[in-house]
Structures are given as C-alpha cells and as structure tokens.
Amino acid sequence: MEERVEKVREFAGLTDEEAAILSSFSSLPMDTADRMIENVAGCMPLPIGIAVNFIINGRDVLVPMAIEEPSVVAAASNAAKLARRTGGFVAKAEPPIMIGQIQVIGIKEEEFGEKAAAVEAAKKELLAEANACDPVLVGIGGGARDLEIREVRTPGGRMMVIHLLVDVRDAMGANAVNTMCERLAPKIEAITGGRVVLRIISNLATKRLVTASVRYAKEDLGGEEVVDRIVAAYMLAAGDPYRAATHNKGIMNGIDAVVIATGNDWRAVEAGAHAYASLGGRYTSLTRWWKNDDGDLEGSIQLPLAVGIVGGATKTHPVARVCLKILGVKTAGELAEVIASVGLAQNFAALRALATEGIQRGHMELHARNVAIAAGASGELVEKVAARMVKERAIRIDVAKKILEEMKRHAE
Ligand code: MEV
C-alpha cells in the first residue's frame, strides 16, 4: 500500500500531508464530521482503490474509487488498459446548466396561455431577480440563463411548471438553484395569480449531459465472435428493463465510486441516471454498443451528471479534496467526463466477462479474501485461506472455516 500511495503522490504531485490523508484510515476529523450532518455518532469508512490505465481525452488519469465491492476497481483498470490501445476514452460534458422547478397551482385551464405569456413577458425581470441572489455565481460567469414554461398533466389536474435554467459553473448547484427558485416564487404568484407550491431543483439534469465513447479492437477481445456476444448482451439491456437494471447497476458501480470519492451527492446522480434511462417511456440501457465496419466494438454512454468540484463535501472532506487533486480536473465538466468514462469502462468490463467466461470466477477469487475474513481469518491467514479456496474452486464460508481450523491445528 505504501508503494501505491508513493506512486499516486508522484503522479498527482501530492504534498506529504495530502499523501498522509489518502493513506490514513481515519481521515475525517471529528469536528468536521460533526458539522457535516446532525447527531453524529461515528463514521463509515470505505476503502479507496485507484483505478489505473485510464486515458481520457488524451490525458492519463488515475481514478480514486470509494467502494466496498471487490472486483470493481480491477475491472475498470482492466477495461481502461484495453482501451489504451485505441487511444482511450473521448468524453464531452455540456455546459453546467441545472434546472429548478417552480410549481404553480390554481391557474384556470382556459387562462393558462395568457398566464404563460405574462411569465414569458416578465422573463428578463425574473432572471435579473434570480441573479440578484447570487452575485458570486454571476461574478464567475454563471447565473440564471433562461425560463421555460411547461404545462404538466398530473393526477391532480394540469399545472404550470416553470423551469429556471441556471449555469452553476463548477458547483453541483442545488443550493444556488433552490435559493433562486424560492426568491422568484412571490413574483411568479403575482404574475400568474396562482399559488406556488414546490421550488426545488430537478435531479433529472437533462441540460447537463455528458457523453463518453470508446473503441475496442476485435483482436484485443479475442475476435469478432466476442464482439458479437458483447453486442448481443447489450441488446438485452436495450430491450428488457429487467436486464437494463442490472446493466445500469454495473455502470453505477463505477460512477458512484468516483462520485463518492470526490464528496459528491451520489443519490442525485443515481436519481438522474435512472430517470434519464426511462426518459423514452421505458427503462433502458445508459450505454450503447455496436460493431463497426471493421468488426471492432464501439460503445458510448450518455447521462446527466450533476457533480461539482466546489462547495459541500467536495471542499470540506479532506479525502475528497485529495481525490480531486489526484484526478487533476480543473472544472466540474472535466470531472463529469472522467466519471462517464469510468461508467463506460465498467460496463464494458461486465459485458465482456458476462459474454465470455461469466463473472463468477474473477469475482469470487477477489471475494475469497472477504469470505476468509468472515470465517474468522486474520493476518497472513487471510491470503492463505483465500488461496486454498480458489485452488479448490470452493469459495464458501463453510469451506473457509474448515481450512482455517485445519491451518490453526497445523500451526499448534
Ligand atoms: C455487479 O455488481 C454488476 C454486474 O451485475 C453488472 C452487469 O451484470 O452488467 C456484473
């Protein structure tokens, strides 16, 4: 582990203090934790693994991933290694525009058009009012950009929903957007004669999409037959929500791990991803895979990614700060580009394993250590018990207990 930290330190130019934060297993100070949430009684540490081999937009990136599941970091690193041969991942984030929703009820159906026109006419004034709440954001080039007026059918009747579009720059954006929506509510009520109920960000951040793509040469995958099998595996996710849920879960293994390592809100990212996967009316895959004219495998991913590099835990959590430095991203968009690429890599790794030998062998080998620990092994016995189970192709707790007893008996 020391060697790994040293390599990361050199690569990312970490200070001694930052390297110490990364390698410590208690890096969140008690008073910081106590200010983060309420009724703090402890802390839930997760391991951070460094995914290697990633080239994203021509840049070498080391990716810190916070996750409890074995084999995710290895799979991402492996997928990135193969992708290096064709130049790695190409990714592009749209400008960081978040949507805030202002729900207006009590507008008569026949008056809807007239009220919508009145809001439209007051747009300039409303945007100026929204921007008055956040001179700092405006000062760095962000701020409220536009209003969209929607008529939404609900089980409780038709409602007017005004979308406030805000460029949140390098923040996740919830605070800025929610503040602006709350500030606009009285003016919207005055203009429409309706009553405003909700004033809140939408996690379906369709104006803040990120796309990543990759190509794998057929020779690197073991031939065109493997390409065909991977595409067939993808097709099931494209056509069947039961498979799409698992397929997307695998993508989120990678995405969430980076989102968490950087102190971002992974519930927001999850909500946005799954809502986006259902936007066509049926839940489907977040990625696409196809065979190109040369018989190679190509894939892409598109999803909304509301992540920031300023504000919230990204700045207050010392480990998140170090992880952001390791990633070397200068903007929230660049962070989103890395995260989307990791999601695509993770999906490729899962599909490749599933379409060929299945995932259990690799997965269980990595899981064997956990099973050994659960059976009571500690110290060097963990590796020994795990290795024996792998050799005997029986990675189970009862087997681990038996091997452990045997080893302990021998040692006596
Ligand atoms: C396991 O955490 C994720 C996979 O199930 C994803 C997939 O099936 O594509 C392996």
Helix content: 40-55%
Percent in strands:
15-25%
Tell me the distance between the termini: 31 Å
Q: How many strand elements? A: 10
Mean pLDDT: 96
Largest sheet report: 4 strands, antiparallel
Strands in their spatial order, largest beta sheet = 3-8-10-9
Folded structure, characterized:
The model has no long low-confidence stretch (mean pLDDT 96). This protein is globular. With 412 residues, the protein is of the alpha+beta class. Helix 11 (241-261) packs across helix 15 (332-355). The chain is built from 18 helices and ten strands. It has helices spanning 2-12, 16-23, 30-36, 72-84, 112-121, 123-132, 135-139, 174-192, 218-221, 224-239, 241-261, 266-277, 313-316, 318-327, 332-355, 360-374, 381-391, 397-411; strands spanning 48-56, 59-66, 90-93, 97-105, 143-154, 157-167, 195-201, 209-216, 287-291, 297-304. The protein starts with a helix and ends with a helix. The strands form three sheets. It has a four-stranded antiparallel β-sheet. Residues 69, 246-247, 249-250, 253, 350, 354, 359 line the site of (R)-mevalonate. Residues 69, 246-247, 249-250, 253, 350, 354, 359 line the site of (R)-mevalonate (MEV).
